[in-house]
Every structure is written in C-alpha cells, then in structure tokens.
C-alpha cells in the first residue's frame, strides 16, 4: 500500500477504504501521454472484470485521483506536464490507497529507484510483454485482496523505510538474510515467536544451528543459494528446530533469493560492473507445520474409513494389488474374503444409526483381533468388510480365520444396555485358483458371500465356478422381473379375513404373485426380497397400488364394497416423498373410498424414522385410510409407539399363533397382545390360523377376526369375488381351499 501517513489538509479528499472486494470490480487508472499506447493498454485490460479510467496527462491523472477511488494505477513516468514521480508523491501525501505499477522507457536505474522508493508495487520497463503486464496487474490486485483480508497490515506508514520494517517484523513468515558464510545478518521477530530464539541469539550464528540434522544436506544448497533468476530455489521444505528439543520441530517452506553485487550499481552508476560478487542470501521461511499435519490427516482420511479407522476400498485394492504381485513372485496363495454382517440392517433400523455405527466399530475391532500383522482388513461400505490374507499355506488357513470371525461375531454386543446378536456371511476367493486380478478375486469372493446368504447366512463358503451360474441366474431374475412389470405378469391374490362370530368375510390382505412364464406362480417371498435389494420395490409398489384400485373397482361394482382391503407397505416406499400423493391420486382416479383401504406397516418402520413415519401416516389417516401394525410383537417396538402413531389395527404374528396347540392352554404373549389391543380400543386380527384349536382359543380370549389356511389360502381376484358372493352364513364351515 502507498499510504505514507494519515495527515489531512484543507480541501483534500478524505481517506477512503479500498474498493477491491468480492462484490465489486477493481477500478484501474491508466496514465500515459502516448494515445496509441494508452489505447492499446485500455484494449488489453478491457473485458477482464475491471473498471477502467484513462488519463493522458499528469493533471488529468491528479483530477481523477482527487475525485475517484482507485485500486491500481498504471503510471507512465514521462508525462508532458507532471512527472510520474510527482503523481506518486501526490498519492502518498494525500493518503490515497492505491497500488502503482510504473511503466517507463527509462533505461537508467534512478527512475526505477525513485519509483520504488515512492512505494511502487512494480516497475515494468517498456516495451513490456503483454503477459508480463497482465500477470503483474493480477498479482497486484490479488495482493490487495489478501491485504484487505489480513486487516491491512500496512497502516499508512510515514515512509517506505518504516513500511518495510513494519511488514518485515509483522510478517507471518520468518524473513532473514545470511552472509556469504551462511551466518545470520538479519532475522525478524517471527523467528522468536515460532522457534523461541531471539534475534540477538541468532545474529552471527550459522544457519545449521536451526536445521534438523536429517535436512542439513538439502539446507546446504538452499541457504547458500547464489542464483537470482527463475532457477533460484523455491518452495523447499525444511524442518527447523525449536528451543526445547526436536519434539517441537516445525516444518518450513522456504523461498530463497540472493543479494548480489548489482546493488553496487546504485552507488557507482558511472562505472561498468564487470563481475557480480556473491554477497549473501535473502530468504523467506513460511511455517507450514499445521498445513503438513492437515495434509497428513487429509491423506489418511482419503485412504481410511472415518468410522472404523480401517483402510477403505481404495487402500484395500492397493494392498491387494501388492499382495498379488508378491504372491506371483513367490508362487504362493492368498485369500480374499468378503464379509457381510447378517441382521445389521435390523439393528440399524430399530436402534438407530448411532447404535448401528457403534456396532460397526465393535465388529471391526473383533475382526481385526483375529488377524495376523500382515493381513489387511478394510471396510467396503455399509456393513461390508473385505480381508486379504497373504502367504497362505493352504485353504485351511483361510477356513480357520473365517471360523474365528464367525465365532467372535456370534458373541453378544453391548450397545449402551442393548444386547445385540449378529452373525456374518463370508465369501472366500483364493489366488490364483479363483482369479489372478484384483477385480476377479473381489467379485468371486462377493459371489461366494451371497451364496452363503442364500443358504441361510451365518457361515462361510469358498468360491466355486458353479456359483457363477447362480450369480448369472440372479441377473436373469432381475431382468425377468423388470420384464414382468412391462408385460403384466404380476397379479394380486387376496387372503380373506373372517369374522369369527358370523364366518363372513370382513376383509382381505392383498398378496402379490408372479405368473412366471417358465416357473409358474411365484409367491411374494420368492421375489420381493430380491426386488428390495435391487431397487425394484418402488416401481413394483407403484404397480401394486394401481392393481389394487382396479380390482376394488370390480368388486365394488359387484356390490361387495363393505369389505376392507389391507396392503403391505414397503419401508422403501414409505420413505419416498410422493407415496401419499400416489395413493390419493389412485383412489380418486378409481373412485375408491379411502375407508376401504388399510395400510399394513411393520414395527421397524416406526422405529427407523419415527417423526417422518408419523407425518406420512397422519396424512393417510386424514385422507381416511386406516393403519395396521403387521407382525406385532416380533420387533423392537414399545407401547409408546401405539400411542404416538395413528394405529387402528394390530395383527398378531403367525409365529405366536403357531404356538397354540391346546384350546385350554396358556399362551401369555397372545393374551398380552389381545389385552393391549382391547385396552387401546384397537381392532385385532390373528394371522396364520391353521387349526380349529387355534381358532377356538383365539375366539375364547377375545380375538374375533382371523386370517389363515383354516379358512382361505390366498386366491386370485375371480375366486375371491366368487367367495364373497357365496360365503357361508353359519360359523364353523370347513375352509375353502384354493
């Protein structure tokens, strides 16, 4: 900055703040008495985001400076009326806050010295290169912006010498000079602040007293730098010692330049300088200790999982690649494992993501404790982990490690008082038998893991080529399921719900079936879990709502609109924001009364995101759709959910009903659920009723609505409508078998 002082004179313009900020364009004053050069300069800077003002004389420049604010003045020293030095004096005297770039054709050094003494930002000799000027302008404006951000460290010093001293001593960097022997001749106060050494302690001392022993060789070159051009040392990182020992070493980024004999030219201008004698070194050392630490943290986080502190998939692939190279060289085997935690999603949904994260951390610790020092455990994402076991003696080594994993994971986990049990599905691929590339080994281990899941989870399996056929079958199943949506192969079946007193059908649960072209009719359990995993649940649910409304329109036209239909709602579908609108639009389109629809949700939906679930279900209730809790008693819910959520119906899960073997037996869970529903005034439906003993026990204890094979299996729409028309009027008739 060029402010020499804060003095005010009568009639002077008031000091003002710089105009340069992120919301305004920098204002530049271009001063040159040659119209051609001034026009060329204007055209060069036009359209680059600057506000440009021109002056072809010193008087015009002074008038602009008195009237307007400028961030940068591009000034020709040779002007017809008032010289450039005088204009710079005016700028300094008036406290005008503007940087000056001098452009001059003067070949003598006095003009340059005069300009620099007056605080010029830079001195360009004509003719200057276009890129040089643009770079200097950009650098000057950037410097102003940094100066503003740092609260204008240069505060209108009285003269250029004081400004220099202030900037040096208040610099965030260590600024120093060395003589030709490498001894300090100057060092600013920053050295004491950062290193603990005062100026007097360092003056006359060799630079090596500060440099870390391991960096002395590199320091020998940069602290004796003799070059002055672009070859001079730049951005060399060194560790300097702090008072108190090496434990406090700090890292410095050192930019060096040299002071050479061309300074003599300022003292003896009439003599030809024939030889440049090395005089010493000038340097700026910036403390980058914190930056280096931050870089180390960023680098670490780029290759590690933040939650478990394990290597992530990037680092894992790198280590696996090295292990493969090593195994190939030594002609040994290695194992790649793919681990997926069973039942983790249930824990995550019921206890929340915080507890889920704690479970992942504990599981990672247990897995790591089972490994050797040279093994690598990584987290792929979610609840999936990968392991590389190098230098196997045989497959039994991998089998033993997998058994250890299963054993340690089966031990209960304590999550702040919640005892949680999980298991794992582990797939194993062996190099080179099961693949010689990273991707092959990971893919085959993944396929083996899914094979374990398909066989009931909680186990491990080595990859075999036959599994690839199963994998291809899954891909084919996904493609076939997508075609099923397009070719109308899906169909809704209905399992009637019976009033135990009258034997009449009072409702039905909608259940999806797939009329597979080669495998026949598939139940929902055979393809919906696959649809959940592969993102097909949303389009299938869209289809289901439309199909239900079309079917209901048919039986309403047949005069059976007293029957309520219940449909299972996927958690994924409830989470989608447009679910409510789709349901409402379908009811309006087919003229279906909302009171005929009951949505079944699982307990885990309530716990997974309670507030959002409440909002969605309240919208349904306001529309007139009722809500039922399916499989009640099998999840982690508490009675508070029955109060908080707009629940109308509780369904007793069939796992409890199956336990009823004697009509006169005692089944406390059933009695508790019936009591809860009765106390809260909720409807009650028992699922999976298959025997007369079960029906009589439920009826005797107050559950009057039942659903199960004792009465009806799930049946197509046509049979369901026929059953509605011909349903029994007396209780006790045998079940109609589909």
From TrEMBL:
Domain called GGDEF: residue spans: 332-465
SMART domains in the record: EAL, GGDEF, PAS, REC
One Pfam family from the record: Response_reg
Residues in EAL domain copies: 474-728
CDD domains: EAL, GGDEF, PAS
Annotated Response regulatory domain residues: 27-141
Catalytically driven reaction(s): 3',3'-c-di-GMP + H2O = 5'-phosphoguanylyl(3'->5')guanosine + H(+)
Record GO biological process: cellular response to nitric oxide; phosphorelay signal transduction system; regulation of DNA-templated transcription
Claim: Phosphoprotein is one of the keywords in the record: yes
Keyword Translocase: no
Residues where 4-aspartylphosphate is found: 76
Single GO molecular function: cyclic-guanylate-specific phosphodiesterase activity
Ranges where the PAS domain occurs: 160-231
UniProt-listed InterPro entries: Biofilm_reg_signaling (IPR052155), CheY-like_superfamily (IPR011006), EAL_dom (IPR001633), EAL_sf (IPR035919), GGDEF_dom (IPR000160), Nucleotide_cyclase (IPR029787), PAS (IPR000014), PAS-like_dom_sf (IPR035965)
Name the record gives this protein: Response regulator receiver modulated diguanylate cyclase/phosphodiesterase with PAS/PAC sensor(S)
Species the sequence originates in: Massilia yuzhufengensis
């Amino acid at each position: 900055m060029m402010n020499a002082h804060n003095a005010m004179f009568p009639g002077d313009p008031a000091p003002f703040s710089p105009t340069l900020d992120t919301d305004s364009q920098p204002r530049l004053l271009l001063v040159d008495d040659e119209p051609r050069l001034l026009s060329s300069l204007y055209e060069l800077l036009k359209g680059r985001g600057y506000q440009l003002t021109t002056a072809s004389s010193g008087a015009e420049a002074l008038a602009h400076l008195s009237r307007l604010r400028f961030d940068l003045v591009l000034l020709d020293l040779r002007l017809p009326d008032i010289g450039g030095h005088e204009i710079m004096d005016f700028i300094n005297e008036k406290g005008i806050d503007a940087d000056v770039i001098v452009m001059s054709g003067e070949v003598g050094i006095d003009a340059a010295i005069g300009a620099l003494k007056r605080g010029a930002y830079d001195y360009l000799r004509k003719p200057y290169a276009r890129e040089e000027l643009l770079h200097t302008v950009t650098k000057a404006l950037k410097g102003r912006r940094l100066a503003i951000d740092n609260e204008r460290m240069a505060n209108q010093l009285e003269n250029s010498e004081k400004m220099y001293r202030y900037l040096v001593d208040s610099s965030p960097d260590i600024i120093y000079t060395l003589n030709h022997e490498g001894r300090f001749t100057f060092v600013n106060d920053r050295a004491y602040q950062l290193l603990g050494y005062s100026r007097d302690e360092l003056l006359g001392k060799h630079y090596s007293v500060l440099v870390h022993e391991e960096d002395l060789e590199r320091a020998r070159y940069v602290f004796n730098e003799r070059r002055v051009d672009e070859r001079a040392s730049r951005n060399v990182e060194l560790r300097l010692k702090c008072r108190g020992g090496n434990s406090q070493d700090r890292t410095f980024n050192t930019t060096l330049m040299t002071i050479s004999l061309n300074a003599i030219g300022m003292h003896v201008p009439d003599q030809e300088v024939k030889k440049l004698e090395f005089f010493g070194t000038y340097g700026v050392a910036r403390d980058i200790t914190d930056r280096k630490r931050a870089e180390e943290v960023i680098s670490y986080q780029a290759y590690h999982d933040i939650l478990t502190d394990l290597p992530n998939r990037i680092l894992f692939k790198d280590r696996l690649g090295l292990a493969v190279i090593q195994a190939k060289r030594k002609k040994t085997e290695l194992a790649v494992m793919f681990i997926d935690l069973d039942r983790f999603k249930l824990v995550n949904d019921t206890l929340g993501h915080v507890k889920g994260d704690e479970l992942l951390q504990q599981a990672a610790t247990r897995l790591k404790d089972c490994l050797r020092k040279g093994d690598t455990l990584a987290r792929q994402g979610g609840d999936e982990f990968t392991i590389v076991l190098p230098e196997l003696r045989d497959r039994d080594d991998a089998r033993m490690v997998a058994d250890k994993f299963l054993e340690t994971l089966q031990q209960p986990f304590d999550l702040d008082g919640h005892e949680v049990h999980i298991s794992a599905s582990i797939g194993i691929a062996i190099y080179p038998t099961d693949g010689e590339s990273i991707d092959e080994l990971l893919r085959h281990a993944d396929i083996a893991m899914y094979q374990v899941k398909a066989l009931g989870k909680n186990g491990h399996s080595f990859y075999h080529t036959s599994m690839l056929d199963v994998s291809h079958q899954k891909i084919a199943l996904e493609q076939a399921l997508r075609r099923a949506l397009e070719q109308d192969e899906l169909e809704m079946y209905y399992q009637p719900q019976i009033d135990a007193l009258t034997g009449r059908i009072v409702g039905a649960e909608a259940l999806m079936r797939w009329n597979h072209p080669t495998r026949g009719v598939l139940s929902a359990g055979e393809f919906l879990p696959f649809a959940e995993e592969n993102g097909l649940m949303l389009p299938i649910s869209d289809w289901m709502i439309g199909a239900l409304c079309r079917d209901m329109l048919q039986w309403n036209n047949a005069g059976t609109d007293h029957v309520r239909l219940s449909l299972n709602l996927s958690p994924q579908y409830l989470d989608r924001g447009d679910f409510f609108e789709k349901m409402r639009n379908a009811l309006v389109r087919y003229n279906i009364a909302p009171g005929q629809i009951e949505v079944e949700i699982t307990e885990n939906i309530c716990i997974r995101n309670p507030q959002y679930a409440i909002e969605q279900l309240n919208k349904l209730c306001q529309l007139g759709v009722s809500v039922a809790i399916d499989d009640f008693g099998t999840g982690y819910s508490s009675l508070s959910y029955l109060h908080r959520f707009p629940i109308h119906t509780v369904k007793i899960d069939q796992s409890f009903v199956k336990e009823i073997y004697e009509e006169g037996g005692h089944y406390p869970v059933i009695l508790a659920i019936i009591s809860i529903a009765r106390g809260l005034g909720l409807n009650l439906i028992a699922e999976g009723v298959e025997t007369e003993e079960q029906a009589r026990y439920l009826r005797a204890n107050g559950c009057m609505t039942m659903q199960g094979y004792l009465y009806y299996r799930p049946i197509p729409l046509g049979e369901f409508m026929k059953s509605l028309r011909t349903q029994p009027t007396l209780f006790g008739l045998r079940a109609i078998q589909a």
